[in-house]
Amino acid sequence: MRTHALAAALGLMGLLGLAPSAGAMVVYAYTGNSYDSVAGGYTTSMQITGTILVPVRLGPNLTNQDVSAGVESYSFHDGLQTLAGQVPVAASFIFSTDQNGGIVTWSVDLSGSAGSISSSGPPLPVSDLIDSGSDLAGSFGQVTGAGSGANAQGLWAIVPEPSTAGLLALGLGLLVGSRRWGR
């Protein structure tokens, strides 16, 4: 029985050693607070949500680092429109991180032919924290709707890598299986 458990543990260690850690992409997800000022088709139940995909986790203690060139793809939704890396959009991603690499301040600005999405976070004065989206129409880019949420900070989080969870489940399954096979 101990032989099976040892084999399973060694197998798990081998699998983890083969896991693509250095080449794995990192997904950061943003969830803003609901808008408190709206016009046009925007409502107070809407908010900005989005994701960015970068080749490596952001480093610790960054200060207003422009990571725009390193962003592989992105997608942000403001309740009415989605601006993503596949469409012609001007994009800017500037972040500051804490000692663990977690995003603590940010400035994300996206603009395209159909509208714009912007989000900025502390340490700006509380009155300057803002998430905003605007919908444009017509050849002169007239704003037909807008939503904004001021004085509230959204949240950034790293989305867990699916392969890590899969490997953990596989390893636990091997350990449980080895105990049953040993009986």
Overview of the structural elements:
The protein is of the alpha+beta class. It has two domains: 1-23 and 162-183; 25-160, no CATH class. Helices cover 20% and strands 39% of the residues. The chain has two helices and twelve strands; from the N terminus they run H-E-E-E-E-E-E-E-E-E-E-E-E-H. The strands form two sheets. Strands 2-11-10-9-8-7-4 form a seven-stranded antiparallel beta sheet, with no helix packed on it. Helix 1 (2-18) packs antiparallel against helix 2.
Tell me the β content: 35-45%
Low-confidence stretches: 1-22, 125-129, 137-142
Number of contiguous helices: 2
User: What is the CA–CA distance across the termini?
Assistant: 7 Å
Mean pLDDT: 74
Q: What is the makeup of the main sheet?
A: 7 strands, antiparallel
Widest sheet, order of strands: 2-11-10-9-8-7-4
Shape: elongated
**Structural classification:** alpha+beta
- The percent of residues in helical segments reads 10-25%
The count of strands amounts to 12
CA radius of gyration: 22 Å
Write the H/E string, N to C.
Answer: HEEEEEEEEEEEEH
Total of domains:
2
